[in-house]
Amino acid sequence: MATVYRSKIDTWIVVVIILGMLASMGGAVTSLSVAPASVAWPIALLVVAIGAGLPTWLLTTTYYRIDGDTLFVSSGPVRLRIPIREIVSITPTNNPLSSPALSLDRLRIEYGRGKSVMISPRDKEKFIRSLEAARGSAV
Q1: Less crowded by CB within 10 Å, the N or C end of the chain?
Q2: Burial class (CB in 10 A: 0-12, 13-18, 19+), 131
Q3: 113 in the same domain as 127
């Protein structure tokens, strides 16, 4: 049975995302007011789709699923399938590099040959226990 873990979400990340969305909508309105309509509408729609659509997609689809012998990582356009037997280590980190995580309270998962991903499950301890249990049954 699959277990889904939603991403922890830091308040400051939500604030930054909302400000970015508002800025993109402001840019779209500005383009509508200064450019000819035939040019402005496609540009405004593109700006809103990217500036508001992508952040909304990330906020609503960032989760981690343990299903059998596989860890699935989902965040907007990012989709990873990590065989649990290939996981080498799980370590806590606050690394701010881009990753499928909505919090800086993260876990770095190293797997395969030098690959890694940083994720931020809400309940890190429960997530690690589930992953370890799945790893034990996969061996």
Answers
A1: N
A2: buried
A3: yes
How many separate domains does the chain show? 2
pLDDT, tens digit, 9 for 90 and up, residues 120-139? 999 999 999 999 999 886 54
pTM: 0.85
52 vs 17, 30, 35, 93, 134, CA distance in Å?
9, 16, 21, 29, 37
Query: Of 80, 85, 83, which is closest to residue 117 (Cα–Cα)?
Result: 80
Q: What are phi and psi of 75, to 5 degrees?
A: -160, 100
CA distance 52 to 68: 35
For residues 64 and 60, give the distance between their C-alpha atoms in angstroms, rounded to a whole number.
12
121 and 105 within one domain: yes
Identity of the residue numbered 78:
V
Same domain, 133 and 68: yes
Is residue 105 helix, strand or coil? coil
